[in-house]
Structures are given as C-alpha cells and as structure tokens.
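Data card: per-record layout.
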Amino acid sequence: MKQIIIFLLVVILLIISYGQYTKYKRFTPPEYEYQLNQDIDLNYHDRSFLLDYYESVEGLNGFVITQWSANNIDVRNPEDDDKATQASVSEYSKKLGLVKYHEDQLVKSKRLKESGLANSEIKLLEEQGTTLEQHLKLQNDKRILTIFNNNIDQLKMGKQSAFVYELQKLLVKKGYDIPLDGVYKVITKDAIMAFEEKNKLFPDGDIDQITLEALLE
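The structure for this 217-residue chain is written out next.
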C-alpha cells in the first residue's frame, strides 16, 4: 500500500513538473534574446540614436517572445508557412533590419574613433555621406592645392620643395617611375607631360590647376 502511494505521488509530481515545463517552454522560446553588441560607440554624438538602438533591440525581443507565447510561432526558425507565420516573419525581418541599421552605425563610429576621429568629425562624415578614406583624401587634396597655390611661382627646374615631393607621389601613384626626392627635374617634367598627353590635356609638362586636379582624381 505504501509503495502504491509513493508511486502515485511520483506520478503526480511528474505531471505537475511536466505542466510547469510546458508552461515555461510556451512562454520562453530557446535563446530568444538578441544580445546587445558590445562593440558599439557608447559615447556616440547623437544620444537619441543610441537610445533608439536599445529600444529597437527591446522591441525585437518583445516581438519574438510574444509571437512564441501567443501564436506559437518561432519567427527566427518558423516551422510552418501559413499566412500568419509569413506576416510574423516579415515583421520580424523589419524589426531586425532596424536593429542592424542602428548597430552598424554605432559600430562604425567606434571604429572611426579608434582611428583618431572625434565626434564632430564623425558627424561631418555622416552628413556628407563620405567614408573615412574619402574624407582623408579630400583633406590631403586640399593640402596639396594649398601648397600648389603657395609655390606656383617657385616651380623651376632644379628647385626643391614640398610641393614637388607631393607632385612626385601623385605621379608615382599614377604609374610613373620617377624618384621621390622633391627636386623638379627633367624626369618629373617628362612624367607630367606624359600624364597630360594620356589625359588629353595640353602637354607642356607644366603644372597648372587643371593638370593638378586631374592628378588628384
């Protein structure tokens, strides 16, 4: 008799445990939480954008668990293909896309800061829609143009200057085999003339604004 009572108690305990497990499983999908990216810029110049990222992650996680508990749909790995499931998966994709949009920009901002940029510079890049490489090239082009404007009357054969050195670097990048010594010699002049001919410019071997801008492209 005692054994029967113990057996019944064990059966009742198993039934209760199974019920609790079923309830837990229904309301808790496996590994449902989208984890916050630890490689984002926590000091991003737009604090509201950072807040939007956190809210979008919370919205995504809330949607996943709601669909699981209310409709028994795992939007990440759906088993069915009915209209309700398709609609849920589509909405999930939109919410995930919003999370990724915020996340990508915040990760990119951290990378830019690691390369030495400040919030103000990152904001400028975003407003201009340019990459760091494009930004650095633009800054370098402006520097070369400034050097050119300050040295235009001093570009003479045998003359050594910072501008000639920068000019030689540009020619080397274009494929011309000349020394990088900063001295304006015949070999540099010939390379300029060859470049002008190739790009349908007046081939006089002299540097003017048009030739320089073509070299900077």
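Known properties of this structure: The radius of gyration is 33 Å. Residues 83-114 form the longest helix (32 residues).

See the next section for split statistics.
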